[in-house]
Amino acid sequence: MFSRLRIGDFDYLVPVPTLAEQFDQLPTLNQVTVPDLWQQQAVTALREGNDVVVQAPTGAGKTLIFELWSNQGKNRGQAIYTVPTRALANDKLAEWRARGWNVGIATGDLADNLDAPVIVATLETQKNRLISGDGPALLVVDEYQMIGDADRGLNYELALALAPPQTQLLLLSGSVANPQDVVKWLQRLGRKAVLIRYEHRPVPLEEVQANNLNFHVPSEIRGYWPRLVAKALAEDLGPILIFAPRRQAAASMAAELARWLPNPNPLNLSTEQKQIAGENLAKMLKARIAYHHSGLSYGARAGVIEPLAKAGQLRVVVATMGLAAGINFSLRSVALAGESYRRDNVEQPLRGDEILQMFGRAGRRGLDETGFVLVTANEIRLRDSHPCHLSRSGMVDWGALLGLMTAAAQQKRDPFTEAVRVQERLFTTKPIVLGVEQSLKHPVTPCGLHTDAERARRIRQRVREMLNSRGEWERVPNPVEAPVKAVKLGASINQGALRSVLTDPEALEKIGSGELVVLSEDDSDKIYGRGITVADKLSADRVIIAKWIRRLTNWNGRQAPMELWNEKIVPLVEKRLAQQKTPVVRFTQHPNKIVALVSLDELTMKVPVDTHGVPLWKPVEREVMPPDCAQCSLTDVCRQLPTATGVALLWRRLNLVDAAGVPTRRGQIVSYFSHGDGLALAAALEDERYKLDELIYDLANLDAGYRFCGEENRWGGRLAMVCQQAYGIQSIPGYLENGVPPKYGSGAEQIVAAVHKNPLNKHGWVNEFLGAGDIDRIIIEWRSFLQQISHAPPLDWARWTALQAMAQAILLETESPTLIDLPALEFQQTKRINHRLILRRH
Questions:
Q1: pTM surpassing 0.90?
Q2: Residue spans of alpha helices (H) in 565-614
Q3: Residue 392 CA: distances (Å) to CA of 177, 397, 431
Q4: Residue 429 reports pLDDT greater than 70
Q5: Phi and psi torsions of 584, nearest 5°
Q6: Residue 743 to residues 102, 144, 715, 728: CA-CA distances in angstroms?
Q7: Comparing 68-82, 150-164, 489-503, which segment has the lowest mean pLDDT?
Q8: Dihedral, CA atoms, 641, 643, 645, 650, nearest 10 degrees?
Q9: Is the pLDDT reported for residue 305 higher than 60?
Q10: Are 432 and 394 in contact (CB under 8 A)?
């Protein structure tokens, strides 16, 4: 059954809560309306103006602290309650609105009633607001252990680090081993913070060795999991939540259970539930068994499976481990079917806090006195579940810092100083350096360099200097070709007069061909040239002409009389050798041969030429530090700086900031987005040949991963190509992988374009590897990215302005005024709020 819910200009159809859910929502009957002592202590601390960090087990009632503080959202200023996923935000919205609260929502793809006293949101939507100093009266961060998440931790950390003083913080978690360190961090930031710790679990957990269950299972039930589940159900341990390592395993296990387990009490589904679930899942649901993973449409997960699980209508739910934190229901028993799970196509071993999160789904408050952990073949036990030490990922939030640096530059403040100030507020005992910290302590230097690595490399550089023709030291220039007759011996400078290189046999070793000979000699120097055999004497009046001479002069005949040689051949030899810049000085007669002595004056050699225009061979050289370093008093300081490429130098190389740290146009684009998305968008906009009507759909690839490419190249497509042209194939953790944003995946653009143009196309793209939920998700992420573009600041750039207008036009498209068939309804649902809501125009 559905009821109509009004949000903004639209009506939404939402599932009516079951009787059990309605009972839980009645304030006068709710079992936790009388707060425990620890909850009262937390509320008191909030009302005294403190920040509060709460560590309590799953199901203990952490949310009640906020509900008591807000007094149902009245008279205490605006409160923003953040949760990790859009699905949980939509659930909270429906729950609190059902209580009559005035609640808004902000999840990236949806922003409604933002002036309400209570806003349910994902933290990323509030990050810029908090950084700019516009915080609410209370910011609640549910599951604040997300600070340590590799993908989203930076957003959580920076939002908390820069939250304005007037905003109180309420941090909630059940899986952090060191909440006291979080309190110390907040206190270091100048905030008043207290820790409320409660270790008692309302529904205690008990281990059950699944292999020791004694119930006799009929032999016709085959397979490990069907027999195990049959025993557990017979022992009254159901309903059971099984976590499987991946999608295919979850669906296969659910199908196997539905096939083998007896079904004495089939579940009757409504026509609407069958339509949303689809034929295969509906058959499993009839056996009171379901699988649950992100490949399912949101309508199937949140509109059918989860309500049935909460109402106690299902015997077994098999869910993927990756969705453990996003499942909004508990069952009596939990079992793990693996020791790892796949994330972004990479196998991840289960951590202790993830096991704790999954086991925490065992036991339903108000229904079960005890929750059960079924120890299966993998031998994962309760002792393996434990909170983990919370630490930051070690990365730097480029987008946020570049945005703050832009604002600082506009206010005539030093951008790098602002970035370092922010980094010093992060949750860490080890400083996260940007690579400008030491340079900021000494901003005015002769070199004018602003990053530590540049200064460290500068001081370590050795400048080659040479003694020039006038006895002065100057930088060694690049060698050039110079005539030999002009080249001087560098070594002779210290001895006074400059000597010609023609006087040094060593210098002429590789100049010309033939034997090195003395052409002339005076009192001080010998001038050298080359002696080349041009003919052999056959007799006193006849010669044998050298083969190379015959080729040089095109002379036919191997022998010649001496008279012919002197009259005809010698002039030809002189002419040709002169053309080769080795003119003949004279011929010399030897007993058995004739030798031509040639000058080397006109040949060239590669040597440096000093500032006075004198070419020098092997000038006296020395290595010194750069001139600007030589006159600087900070040489010892710079020698101690690390040469490793820091973040600031990376920004310089990627052209995100100029030498003074002021973000460039590319850097400003990057500042509007998270991770590497801004890098990709900036590169695409800079390529004037990239049509915007193609780019607008290609943006869907930024968060597509590996699922949409099929057997094609994941890193293919026009957007990946322009990224690699702009940034090469370098990899920067969190920002670029082979020159492309790490979550990039080709193929999504085709599906998004097709479904955007015709919603009925969606199910035509579903296959064995790509589920309806994947298509829902990528459309939501695509539209969320368009929202970010449309709400980003303006730039004096025609292509950026045009892209913003295009994004806004897509987001403002009018929906169909008539109720259409189910696949299209699911598309509308994913385009607007990723909720179990069916959208139609009011």
A1: no
A2: 570-579
A3: 14, 12, 11
A4: yes
A5: -80, 125
A6: 37, 23, 10, 17
A7: 68-82
A8: 70
A9: yes
A10: yes
